[in-house]
C-alpha cells in the first residue's frame, strides 16, 4: 500500500482499532479547541504549558497507586497534579517577590522533572503493565482503547455543558474581570471552574499529544480561528473545527507508519492550519494586507495617470487630440512602472482609449481626472488654512491624500472651506 | 477641609488598602452627597483608582468599610455602576460595540438569564445617548480612544444605576468627546444620579464638578467644589506627601509590619 492509500484507509475504519483512535483523537482535540479559546483570550498560554507538563507526575503516581493504566484513574491523577501546578504558580507569584513568568518556569520544570524521575523509576522497576506510560511524553493516539474513548466522551459532554452554561460569565471574565466583579459575578468561583475544565482537558489531551506539545493543542486552534473572525462564538466554533480536524488528520498520518508519534503530527497539522490562517485569514491576514496594498497602489496609479491628462489639456479646456505615451512619460512626473500600470488598468476599466497612436480619456476617465485634481486642491487649501502651512509646502501632502478622500470628506471639506473657488496657488478648483 | 453630609450617597469609614505591604490609601473617611458630580483628584499614585475599586469591592480594604445609601455594597449592587479605566481591557477582544454595551445588562440578568427585547431596546437607547448607534456592529479595536470610552459609558448606562463610579473617563479623548461626555454626565445628574469621576486635569475641573475629593494616599479634602478648590489645599495635595507619613509607610514595607493587630 502506498502512503496515501494507508492514510485513506484510516478513515474507512478498516481495522477496529482505527475507529477508536479516530473518535479518541476527535474528542480530545475538539474539546481542547473549545476550552483553549478561553485560555487564549485570557492570555494564559503559558499557564496551559505549565498544566500540560505538570500532569506527568500525576499520571505516574496514579499508575503507581492503581498498578494499572485505568484511564479514569490516570485522568484523575493528571487533573490533581495539573490543578496543583496552577495553585503553585498563583501562590508563588502572589506571595513572593517572584514574578509570574519566573513562577511559571519554576513550577513547570519542577513538576516535569519530578514526573520524568518517577517515570524512569517505574520503567526500571520491571512492573507489569508499565509499557506505554512513556508515551504520555509525546503522545500516542494508537494506544487508546475503548475504555479511554468512553471516558473522553463523558468528559467532553460535561465540559461542553459547563462552557455553554457559563459562556456569558467566562466571556466577561476574559474581557473585563473588574467589571464582572463589579456586577457581582462570583469571580473566584468562575476562575476555579475554568481552571478545572482546562486542567481536565489537558489531562485528557496528553493521551494523544503528549505533555510536551499539549499547550499547542490548547492555544493554536483559537489563535488560528481568530484570523477569520471578530466574533467570539464564531471563533470558538472555528477553533473546535480546526482542532478536531488537526487531531484526526494527525492521528491518521501517525497511523500510516508505526514509528510516528501522534502528538508531533497533530501539532504540525495544526501549525500548518494556523500558518495558513495567518496568511489568508480575512482578519489581519498577510495576504489580505498584501492585496489591500496592491489595490491601493493600483488606485493611485490610475488616478495619477488620469490626473496628468488634466494638466496636459489645461483642465480639459484645450483639445490637443490624443496624447502619446512619450508625452505622458515626460510630463506626468510619474515613475515609468507606475505610469505603465496606470495606463494598463485605466484602459482595462475603460477610462482610457487608444486613438491614432495616442491616448484619450473616456467620459468616466475625465470625471475621475477632474475629481482627483479637485480633491488635491481642496486638500491644499484645507491644510494651508488649518495647519497654517505656506502655499509652497502643501503640494506633497496633497499628492498622497487626494487618493483617499471619500465623497463624505469632500463634502465636509467644501463646507468647512465655505465652497471655495480657488486653491492656495490661485488655481481654480475644478467642478465635476 | 472635610465637609460631612447628612443622608450620604457613599460613606467610607477609615478605609485603608495596603498594596504590596504599603498603604495605597490610608484612613479615607468621608461622606459624599447625592445627585452631584463628584471629582476625585490627586497626583499620580495617590490612590484614586484604588479608592474607586475598594468602594466597588474589587479590592478588599484591609481596614475600614464602605456604605452606599447606608447599606452594604451587596445589598445595593444593582444601584451602583462601575466604569473601569479604558486601558484596563484588551480592545482586540473579539466583540462588537453592541456586544460590549450588552454586558451592562448582565448586571440585571445575572450569569444565566437571556437578554430579551426590552434589554435590546435599552442597549440601543444607550448606544444612541453616546452617539454610537451607527457603530454598533463595529469590532471594538477599530474604534478611536474616545469612542472606546463612550462604549464603556454606554455599557454603564444600560445598568440604570443610581451611583456611577468612573475611573478616568476623560483620559485619551478629544476635546469634542470630552464635552459630549460632560454634557451626558450633567444630564444624568439632572436625573438625580450621583457620579464619581476620577480626573487629573486641574484646568477643567471647575467646569465639571460640584463636589471635590482631593487625595494623596490620605484624604486631603472633601467638600463643595468652590470651598475645596483653593490654592493652599491644592498645594497640600500636590506639593508632596507628608514626610512623616511616607516615612512610616516605607518602614511598614521594609519591616513587613502589620498596619494593625487583628
CATH structural class of the largest domain in chain A: Mainly Alpha
Q: Show unreliable segments of chain A.
A: none
Fraction of helical residues of chain B: 25-40%
Named CATH topology of the largest domain in chain A: ABC transporter involved in vitamin B12 uptake, BtuC
Structural class of chain B: alpha/beta
Number of helices of chain B: 11
Sheet with the most strands: spatial strand order of chain A: 1-2
Measured as a percent range, the helix fraction of chain A is: over 70%
Explain what the structure shows:
The complex is a heterodimer of chains A (432) and B (262). By secondary structure, chain A is mostly helical. Chain A folds into three domains: 3-284, ABC transporter involved in vitamin B12 uptake, BtuC; 298-361, Arc Repressor Mutant, subunit A; 363-432, Diphtheria Toxin Repressor, domain 2 (Orthogonal Bundle). Chain A contains 19 helices and two strands. In chain A, a hairpin with a 2-residue loop joins strand 1 (352-355) and strand 2. In chain A, helix 7 (146-165) packs antiparallel against helix 10 and helix 17 crosses helix 19. The longest helix of chain A has 27 residues, at 286-312. The radius of gyration of chain A is 32 Å and the shape is elongated. Chain A starts with a helix and ends in a 16-residue tail after the last helix. The mean pLDDT of chain A is 87. Chain B has 262 residues and is α/β, with parallel strands linked by helices. Helix content of chain B is 37%, strand content 22%. Chain B is built from eleven helices and nine strands. Chain B has helices at 48-55, 73-76, 97-102, 106-109, 117-129, 145-157, 175-190, 202-208, 225-228, 231-238, 243-255; strands at 10-19, 22-32, 37-41, 63-68, 80-83, 163-166, 194-198, 211-216, 218-224. In chain B, the strands form two sheets. A six-stranded mixed sheet of chain B has the order 5-6-7-3-8-9, sandwiched between helices. Chain B has a three-stranded antiparallel sheet with strand order 2-1-4. In chain B, helix 5 crosses helix 6. Chain B is globular and about 55 Å long. Classes of the chains: A mainly alpha (432), B alpha/beta (262). Chains A and B meet through helix 8 and helix 9 of A and strand 5 of B.
Amino acid at each position: 500500500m502506498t502512503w496515501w492509500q494507508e492514510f485513506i484507509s484510516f478513515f474507512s475504519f478498516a481495522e477496529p482499532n482505527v475507529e477508536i483512535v479516530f473518535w479518541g483523537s476527535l474528542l480530545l482535540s475538539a474539546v481542547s479547541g473549545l476550552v483553549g479559546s478561553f485560555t487564549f483570550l485570557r492570555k494564559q498560554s503559558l499557564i496551559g504549558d505549565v498544566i500540560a507538563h505538570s500532569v506527568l507526575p500525576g499520571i505516574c503516581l496514579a499508575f503507581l497507586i492503581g498498578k494499572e493504566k485505568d484511564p479514569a484513574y490516570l485522568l484523575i491523577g493528571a487533573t490533581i497534579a495539573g490543578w496543583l501546578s496552577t495553585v503553585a504558580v498563583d501562590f508563588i507569584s502572589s506571595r513572593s517577590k517572584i514574578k509570574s513568568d519566573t513562577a511559571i518556569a519554576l513550577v513547570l520544570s519542577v513538576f516535569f522533572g519530578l514526573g520524568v524521575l518517577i517515570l524512569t523509576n517505574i520503567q526500571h522497576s520491571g512492573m507489569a503493565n508499565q509499557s506505554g506510560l512513556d508515551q504520555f511524553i509525546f503522545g500516542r493516539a494508537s494506544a487508546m482503547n475503548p475504555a479511554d474513548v468512553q471516558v473522553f466522551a463523558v468528559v467532553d459532554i460535561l465540559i461542553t455543558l459547563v462552557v455553554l452554561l457559563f459562556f456569558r460569565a467566562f466571556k466577561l471574565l476574559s474581557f473585563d474581570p473588574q467589571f464582572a466583579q463589579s456586577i457581582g459575578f462570583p469571580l473566584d468561583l468562575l476562575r476555579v471552574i475554568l481552571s478545572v475544565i482546562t486542567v481536565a482537558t489537558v489531562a485528557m489531551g496528553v493521551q494523544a499529544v503528549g505533555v510536551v506539545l499539549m499547550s499547542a493543542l490548547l492555544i493554536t486552534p483559537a489563535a488560528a480561528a481568530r484570523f477569520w473572525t471578530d466574533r467570539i462564538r464564531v471563533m470558538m466554533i472555528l477553533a473546535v473545527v480546526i482542532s478536531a480536524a488537526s487531531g484526526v488528520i494527525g492521528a491518521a498520518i501517525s497511523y500510516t507508519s508505526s514509528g510516528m508519534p501522534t502528538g508531533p503530527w497533530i501539532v504540525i497539522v495544526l501549525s500548518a492550519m494556523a500558518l495558513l490562517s495567518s496568511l489568508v485569514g480575512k482578519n489581519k491576514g498577510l495576504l489580505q494586507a498584501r492585496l489591500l496594498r496592491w489595490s491601493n497602489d493600483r488606485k493611485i496609479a490610475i488616478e495619477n495617470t488620469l490626473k496628468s491628462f488634466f494638466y496636459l489639456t489645461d483642465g480639459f479646456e484645450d483639445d490637443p487630440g490624443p496624447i502619446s505615451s512619450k508625452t505622458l512619460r515626460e510630463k506626468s512626473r510619474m515613475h515609468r512602472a507606475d505610469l505603465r500600470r496606470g495606463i494598463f488598468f485605466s484602459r482595462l476599466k475603460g477610462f482610457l482609449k487608444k486613438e491614432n497612436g495616442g491616448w484619450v480619456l473616456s467620459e468616466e476617465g475625465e470625471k475621475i481626472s477632474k475629481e482627483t485634481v479637485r480633491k488635491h486642491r481642496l486638500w491644499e487649501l484645507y491644510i494651508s488654512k488649518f495647519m497654517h502651512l505656506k502655499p509652497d509646502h502643501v503640494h506633497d501632502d496633497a499628492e498622497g491624500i487626494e487618493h483617499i478622500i471619500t465623497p463624505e470628506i469632500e463634502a465636509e471639506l467644501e463646507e468647512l472651506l465655505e465652497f471655495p473657488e480657488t486653491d492656495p496657488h490661485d488655481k481654480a478648483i475644478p467642478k465635476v | 477641609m472635610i465637609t460631612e453630609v447628612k443622608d450620604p450617597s457613599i460613606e467610607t469609614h477609615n478605609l485603608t488598602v495596603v498594596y504590596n505591604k504599603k498603604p495605597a490609601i490610608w484612613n479615607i473617611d468621608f461622606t459624599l452627597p447625592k445627585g452631584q458630580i463628584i471629582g476625585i483628584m490627586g497626583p499620580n499614585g495617590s490612590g484614586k483608582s484604588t479608592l474607586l475599586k475598594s468602594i466597588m469591592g474589587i479590592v478588599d480594604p484591609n481596614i475600614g468599610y464602605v456604605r452606599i445609601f447606608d447599606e452594604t455594597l451587596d445589598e445595593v449592587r444593582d444601584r451602583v455602576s462601575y466604569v473601569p479605566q479604558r486601558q484596563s481591557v484588551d480592545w482586540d477582544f473579539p466583540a462588537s460595540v453592541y456586544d460590549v454595551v450588552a454586558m451592562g445588562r448582565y448586571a440585571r440578568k445575572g450569569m444565566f438569564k437571556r437578554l430579551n427585547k426590552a434589554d435590546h431596546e435599552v442597549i440601543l437607547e444607550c448606544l444612541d445617548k453616546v452617539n454610537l448607534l451607527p457603530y454598533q456592529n463595529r469590532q471594538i479595536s477599530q474604534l478611536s480612544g474616545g469612542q472606546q470610552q463612550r462604549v464603556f459609558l454606554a455599557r454603564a448606562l444600560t445598568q440604570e444605576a443610581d451611583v456611577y463610579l468612573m475611573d478616568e473617563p476623560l483620559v485619551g479623548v478629544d476635546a469634542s468627546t470630552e464635552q459630549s461626555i460632560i454634557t451626558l454626565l450633567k444630564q444624568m445628574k439632572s436625573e438625580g444620579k450621583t457620579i464619581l469621576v476620577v480626573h487629573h486635569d486641574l484646568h477643567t475641573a471647575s467646569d465639571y464638578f460640584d463636589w471635590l475629593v482631593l487625595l494623596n494616599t490620605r484624604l486631603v479634602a472633601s467638600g463643595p467644589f468652590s470651598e475645596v478648590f483653593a490654592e493652599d489645599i491644592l498645594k497640600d495635595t500636590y506639593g508632596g506627601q507628608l514626610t512623616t507619613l511616607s516615612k512610616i509607610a516605607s518602614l511598614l514595607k521594609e519591616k513587613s509590619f502589620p498596619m494593625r493587630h487583628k
